[in-house]
Amino acid sequence: MASHLETELGKLKNIIIKIGSLAESQVSEAVKSLLSEPGSENKELKKTESKIDKLDLKIDDICQSVFALQQPVASDLRFIMSAMQMSNEIERIGDLSISIIKLTKSIKEKHELISKFDIAEITSEVEMVTLKTNQCFENLDESIIEDIFRLNTSIKTKSATAIENIISEMKNNSKTVVSGTHLILALKHIERISDHCTNIAESVYFMINAKTIKHEKFTDKK
Amino acid sequence: MHKIESKNVNFNYGEFQALHDISMSMKENTVTALIGPSGCGKSTYLRLLNRMNDLIDNTHMTGSILIDGVDIYERQTNVDDLRKNVGMVFQKPNPFPKTIYENVAYGLRVNGITDKNEIEERVVTSIEQVALWDEVKDKLKKSAFELSGGQQQRLCIARALAIQPSVLLMDEPTSALDPISTAKVEELIYELKNKYTIVIVTHNMQQAGRVSDNTAFFYMGKLIEYDKTKTIFTKPTIKQTEDYITGRFG
Fold first, then answer.
1. What is the nearest CA distance from B234 to chain A, expressed in angstroms?
2. Domain containing residue A192
3. What start-end ranges are recorded for coiled-coil regions in this protein (chain B) (predicted)?
4. Nearest by CB to B210, which of A1, A64, A70?
C-alpha cells in the first residue's frame, strides 16, 4: 500500500502538473493576443487565472501540512521545497501572460510591428520553453533542462535585438512611441516568463540531483 | 452523533486528581491522538474508554463517557461486552505464548465462537488487515515469539481486530519498535480508520501529526487544546500547546 506521505506527494505532483498546464495555456493566449489572432474572451482568461490562484493556494496548503505533519526527508523534502518554489514561478507565469494580453490591447498597428521585429520567433520559443518546462517536471526528465536554458538564452538574445530595433524605430518615428513602449514591455514579460521556466528547471534539477544550480551558468552547473 | 463523547470527566487515584473536567468528543472513523508530557493524564483518559481503570484499586471517576450514545459507566453496562467493542493495543507487543494462529484465534474461542471455519476466516482476515499475512502465512503454527517486535505488535493488533471491535485504543503502540516497524504500524493505523474509530496515546508528536485527524493536548490532567491535527500543528490557539509542540515547554 502507498504510504500516506506518498499519497500526499502524488496529489501535489498532479496539482503542479495541472497548474503548469493552465499557465501554459495562458502563455498561448498571450502569444495569440500578441500575434493579433483572436484570443480567448476576458471572462475565460479570468477564470483560468482564478483557477491558477486557487491551485497555488492549494499547493501552499498541502506543503504546509506535509511539513508540519509528515516531516519529509531526502527526496521527499526536496520535492516539497521545489513544489513551493515552482508554484510561485508558475503563478507568476500566469500573471505575466495576463499582463501581456492587457498590453497588446494598446499596441496599434500590431501586425506591422510584430512582423517588422521578428517577434513571432520569440513567441514561438516562449511557448516551446513553457511546454518543455512542464514536460521536464512531469517526467522528471533532466535531459530537457539543457533545452530550456538554450531557449531562454535565445529568447533573451532575440528580445534584446528586437528591443534595440524598436527603440531605433521610436527615435525615427515618434508615432510609434506608445505602441513601441508597450511592445518592449511585452517582450520584457516574455523574457521573465522564460526566466521563471529556467527557475522551474533548476528546481527539477535540485529535486533529482540534490544539487542547487541557482545563480550559475548552466554549462558550469553540471 | 459522535462515536465517543466524554462529558466533564474527573478521575482520581486516591486523593490525587489525575483528570480535571475533560469534555471531548470523537467522530466515527477518525484517529484521535492524545499528546502531552508524562503524567499529564492521557493514558489515564485512554484507559477510561474501555474501563481498564476499574481494575485499579482506590480510584474514582465522575462525569460520563458515551460510546454510540450509551454511557459506558452505567450500572447495566456489561464490561466484557464493552471491551469486545473497544479493543486495546499496548506499548509493548504482548503476544500469548502460543502459535501465531492461536494468538488471534484464542480471543474468538474465549468469546464463544466454536465454528472452525468462522475462526479460520476471522484469523486470516485479521492478519490480512494488519498487512502481516504475506509475512506469516507459511508459519502460522510457529510461536508468535519468533516474530520480530514490529510483527508481534501487528499480530497484537490483529488479535484485537479479530473480536470485531468498533473502537481501537492504542497506548504508545510503537514506542518499543524500530523505525521501519513504526512506519508499518503507522500506515496500518491510517488504513484501519476506514473501519474503526481509533484513539492513540503517543509521546511522539511527529507520529501524532502523521497518523491522526484530531489531536488533544493534555497537561497536568487538563485538556488544554483539542482540534484538527493540522490546526494543532500549524496554528494552535493556546500558548502552552505551541510551546509543547515546538519543544519550548518548561
1. 7
2. 4-221
3. none
4. A70
ipTM, two decimals: 0.71
**B194 phi, psi to nearest 5 deg:** -65, -25
The structural domain count of chain A equals 1
CA distance B129 to A84: 36
Contact between B131 and A1 using a beta-carbon 8 Å cutoff: yes
CA A31, A36, A40, A43 torsion-angle sign: positive
- Cα A160 to Cα A138: distance, rounded to the nearest angstrom: 31
Q: Do B209 and A71 touch (CB under 8 A)?
A: yes
Give A4 to chain B, closest Cα distance, Å: 7
Given a contact cutoff of 8 angstroms between Cβ atoms, the answer to whether B197 and B49 are in contact is no
How far, in Å, CA of A34 to CA of B42, rounded?
Answer: 65
pLDDT of A141-181, one tens digit each?
Answer: 999 999 999 999 999 999 999 999 999 988 998 888 888 89
What ranges do the domains of chain B cover? 4-93+167-245
* CATH T-level fold of B4-93+167-245: Rossmann fold (3.40.50)
Other beta carbons less than 10 A from residue A210's beta carbon: 11
* Residue B177 backbone dihedrals phi, psi, to 5 degrees: -110, 155
DSSP-derived 3-state class of residue A77: helix
CA distance B60 to chain A (A): 36
CATH number at residue A209: 1.20.58.220
